[in-house]
Amino acid sequence: MEKPGFLEIVKDLLLPPICSICGRESLSPICESCKSKIREIDTDICDYCGRPLSADSYNADCYEVKSTNQPVDSQHPADSFEKVKSCVHVLKGDQGEGINRQEFFGREAKGCSFCRGENFSFFKLRSYSLYKGEMKSIIKKFKYQKIHALGGVLAKFLIEAYNKYYRNEKIDFIDTVPDFLGEACLNHMQILCIEMSKKLGLPFINNIIKIRKTSKQQGLDWSQRKKNLEGAFKVKNCLLVKNRNLLLVDDVWTTGSTLNEISKVLKNSKANKIYLLTIAR
């Protein structure tokens, strides 16, 4: 381990390192107290989108399906948390083609009502934690205040989630959401993907470009978000993704409109499976 230089020692004496969240003195960017408050998503989750299957997550429109060939039985809603946890239902197609999701995850797959209502273009989604409290603060400070020391912390969360959910999957490349074409600097997610690439040994291909400016997604409803992003992204080299499995990484999953639009573009470029990974949701 490299010894700190004279300037680093003087700087730490004059300005002791502090936790970026609570401001207490800390040798790392986040103190152990703040870090301990960040909880991994480790409850029962939707086998497709990774949404926690809690009583709050489910509602009465999640129903049981007897087999993959039978329609959803809307006459028998789940009426208790225990029944909800064992609920399965038909999920729509992997590429919006009406394929039964349970062909991918098995007949006893657990799904949520959110997935059932959408034809997503990705294969599977997982997240490290929920977007609240200390996690929300870390992401915002790294993204907007450019506190780069937090990059290592966030990259570690992503790597832990990757090893937990995707380590045994055959993934060829990592990619992420780009900024508008022409913006010279790497954005916060490209920085994290480079770090992930080094640690996991998966090439970060940076093969997606944003070809037009879009309105901010905040404040738009689901349909407006989708329309706002239509035609905004392109793949630089289609041959690079053809028949390949990609890991598409982002900071936060909200409605999924951005990641799904990019997944759709990748599928149109003949990519095979698109796995999604976000720091939070």
Short recap of the structure:
By secondary structure, the chain is of the alpha/beta class. The protein is built from eleven helices and six strands. It has helices at residues 6-14, 32-36, 81-85, 102-105, 113-116, 133-144, 150-165, 188-200, 222-229, 238-241, 257-268; strands spanning 124-129, 173-176, 208-210, 233-235, 246-252, 274-280.
What does this molecule look like?
The protein is α/β, with parallel strands linked by helices. The chain contains eleven helices and six strands. Helix 11 links the parallel strand 5 and strand 6. Mean pLDDT is 78; it is low at 8-14 and 55-99.
Strand content: 5-15%
Using only C-alpha atoms, the radius of gyration works out to 21 Å
Widest sheet: strand ordering = 1-6-5-2
The mean pLDDT is 78
Secondary-structure-based class equals alpha/beta
Parts with pLDDT < 50 across at least 5 consecutive residues? 8-14, 55-99
Helices and strands, in N-to-C order? HHHHHEHHEHEHEHEHE
- Count of distinct strands: 6
Largest sheet: 4 strands, parallel
Tally of DSSP helical segments:
11
Structure characteristics:
single chain; 281 residues; alpha/beta; four-stranded parallel sheet; two-stranded antiparallel sheet
Topology diagram in text:
Elements: H1 6-14, H2 32-36, H3 81-85, H4 102-105, H5 113-116, E1 124-129, H6 133-144, H7 150-165, E2 173-176, H8 188-200, E3 208-210, H9 222-229, E4 233-235, H10 238-241, E5 246-252, H11 257-268, E6 274-280
Helix pairs in contact: 7-8
